[in-house]
Design brief:
Blueprint lengths: L8 E5 L3 H12 L3 E5 L7 H5 L3 E2 L3 H6 L3 E4 L4 H8 L2 H7 L3 E4 L5 H13 L3 E7 L12 E5 L2 H11 L5 E4 L6 H29 L4 H13 L1 H14 L9 H17 L5 H18 L6 H7 L2
Parallel strand pairs: 1-2, 1-4, 2-3, 4-5, 5-6, 7-8
Antiparallel strand pairs: 6-7
The protein binds NADPH dihydro-nicotinamide-adenine-dinucleotide phosphate.
């Protein structure tokens, strides 16, 4: 691809696995790319592919109208961009912050940016590094729509789908946090299941094909729960909370019988029992979202 050659320029601050993937995708698309990382030397391969390696973050951001920041969290973002020479160089330019953190941190960073004449978009990357530059990548963005539209053509070099979620700057981080809540509890559940299966003499490879079957039944469950939570009408499902709580108790019992911590499942069972105690035993698991969001 060479559609961007000579027409656009981007700076990437942060060259961890994700930052390197982002910079590589910009290079592949022909975007003039300047890179910088706190620890020197991480730019070697990118420079060999045509990136400009900046000696300082200030020098890096001065090279492009758009700077993409991708570091571990917003403490790291602050450590990079809130240095006077970097802040000065960013004045009048745009930052797209693709580092992950909380909605509150996104709002605080936007406040800092507004106070220093820095144009600011927040974003989240929902897919792993091999997807970057391919149709499988998923990017979420929030902040001023006009700014998003202005930089959308360059961001398109990252491939995949880009969704602008609205002007409220914390929105991309809010989606990110909620989606990662699903991801990390699912992965934690899987690792726990592997330990439990092993204790029963079942190998991980033996369980894996059936585990894939479990994940395949989730999409319609998610859709049904979303409809119920948004409408506030909870149907009587094939698997009511009374049955779910009983199943969870079996997992707790078997885990603890093998000396395996069952804290996560105990917590989930506790929510189900509370909802049952409030008279919702015939409802499905979606009822728990309402229970947890009550103030
Ligand atoms: P990390 O989350 O490990 O971030 C590494 C980067 O952060 C390096 O550039 C590192 O610099 C920098 N960094 C850490 N602390 C500081 C600091 N105090 N000052 C300056 N720079 C600092 O790796 P990734 O690249 O994978 O992730 C970057 C972001 O992308 C994270 O927020 C992550 O959640 C998000 N993300 C990553 C995905 C992935 O698949 N990897 C998927 C989706 C999102 P140094 O080299 O000097 O240590």
């Amino acid at each position: 691809m060479s559609s961007h050659t000579g027409q656009s320029a981007v700076t990437v601050l942060g060259l961890g696995p994700m930052g390197r993937s982002l910079a590589g995708a910009f290079l592949d698309a022909g975007v003039r790319t300047t890179v910088w990382n706190r620890t020197p030397g991480r730019d070697r391969e990118l420079v060999a592919r045509g990136a400009a390696g900046a000696r300082t973050a200030g020098e890096a951001v001065a090279a492009s109208p758009l700077t993409v920041v991708c570091v571990v969290d917003y403490d790291a973002v602050d450590a990079v961009v809130r240095r006077p020479e970097v802040t000065d160089a960013l004045k009048g330019r745009t930052v797209v912050n693709l580092s992950a953190d909380t909605p509150d941190r996104a709002r605080a960073t936007a406040g800092w940016a507004a106070g220093h004449g820095v144009r600011y978009l927040d974003g989240a990357i929902m897919t792993p590094t091999p997807t970057i530059g391919t149709p499988a990548a998923v990017f979420l963005h929030s902040g001023p729509e006009e700014l998003y539209r202005a930089h959308r053509p360059v961001l398109a070099a990252l491939g995949g789908t880009h969704t602008h979620l609205g002007e409220e700057i914390g929105r991309a981080a809010a989606y990110d946090i909620a989606l990662l809540d699903i991801f990390w509890t699912a992965v934690a559940g899987y690792t726990h299941a592997l330990a439990l299966a092993r204790a029963e003499g079942v190998g991980a490879g033996e369980l894996a094909p059936f585990a894939a079957g479990i994940s395949a039944i989730l999409p319609p469950v998610f859709e049904q729960a979303a409809r119920e939570v948004d409408s506030g009408h909870f149907s009587e499902p094939g698997n009511p909370l009374t049955s779910a709580a009983s199943s969870m108790a079996h997992i707790v019992h078997t885990s603890e019988g093998h000396g395996i911590d069952a804290g996560v499942m105990r917590a989930a069972e506790g929510w189900a029992r509370r909802a049952i105690g409030q008279g919702h035993g015939a409802d499905g698991l979606a009822r728990i979202a309402e229970l947890l969001s009550r103030r």
